[in-house]
């Protein structure tokens, strides 16, 4: 470990010298997350029996990225990654040791934009294809190959690509092909105040099959079409995806007779006014799991994922509102005869309203109100549960618009109020219904939770500020009641300290009534930042942007460093 640290320091000394000489061409970024995991009588002794053997208490993830611009139209990028002595807890075992993570060279001039090497891209909303990186989730499904975008005219863009998914420092077995077109119809029709776009896409996943007389092809095709309209304050969008017939894995193997297509439809519409706004999103998914390696379906590390299907619920700021988080149900799963899932159907609604200034409710600064509600259910279906010994093959039929078992619903209301030039408050209330039986295959069925929270920020001179937050969750099921709070003080925009705690005081098991405390702070200068934290991680789902992963309970000291020049 010491040798790695010395090497990094020497490399940074060299890069700073080089960057000074080529400051207009070279950009350097470095991020490091280092954690010392402690044994804790409450969260348990530290060990990692999921992703790798060994019991190294010190773990670190390190990323060094270099971007160099040669002539304005030609650029190159390389990212070196080090996971030493092991990657952080709950990261894929494919992230190990030190190696080159990604590299690319890009040509962009005139009508052509082409990249060779590793790249990230997205077709439409991502329902058919998206490759992206999120280090907090341990997710990097970059494609290694080539992508080219050609704009023969201002109103038309054509993209073609080929690649294999990044899997740690290797690549997937499956190959990904894709073509995407985007038409700006408004310009062609001479419209000035209306924007209208149309785009068809194709994505193919080809994976060699090691099956005798397979009932499905090596190549799985997916087609999509999207339409977006913007007219003044009104906007609307429609996207449809059809995935060709493919084998569905049952207990990590394929039955040549269980072959089904998949589909997705996404509808979005909204209105934005001076003081009022509304947004409605609805979605139906059936058998939309799409991985470059088929048997990666349902993997806990989000590897080999071809498409992007986030949860369409509000991304909450308060910690207790993120205990019972909905995850999208897009896969076909035969868990038991009375527990069959083939997709989801539902939607969410957002309403925003700004009360005028200088009114009894608006006060001197106005008041912002936000309401959000969502409802998600399984697709109503009739199914045949497999029995290999009796020669019975799995099968199902889903109704086009049938709402089956309720998975999740929530209703939340938020009031943001500025009382003076110094004081700002945010008051929040939420109710949830969470079907833990279907969403987590748990013996517990429906969890009904109510959450109330409030934070207050007081701003002082010279960039100083203080924040206090209190929150509470009521539930009669599962782990029952929780309480939480945060104190934060910013000495300046560059230096801050905080302490927070989540306490599961209502748990029926005395030994599981745990304080998940954390305290720490951060200091920054320019684009460089260092943060330190000591405390406990609550086990469960960690979600970023609607995408989640399971994390284990742990206790430790964390240091995060970010440098760029």
Core attributes:
565 residues, 24-stranded antiparallel β-barrel, two-stranded antiparallel ribbon, mainly beta, 33 strands, disordered N terminus
Q: What does this protein structure show overall?
A:
This protein is globular. The protein has a 24-stranded antiparallel β-barrel. Helix content is 5%, strand content 59%. With 565 residues, it is mainly beta.
| General form | globular
Structural class: mainly beta
How many DSSP helices?
3
Rg from Cα: 25 Å
End-to-end gap: 25 Å
Number of strands: 33
Poorly predicted ranges (pLDDT <50, ≥5 residues)?
Answer: 1-6, 50-54
Assign a percent range to the helix content: under 10%
Question: What kind of sheet is the major sheet?
Answer: 24 strands, antiparallel, barrel
Strand percentage: over 45%
Report mean pLDDT, rounded to a whole number: 91
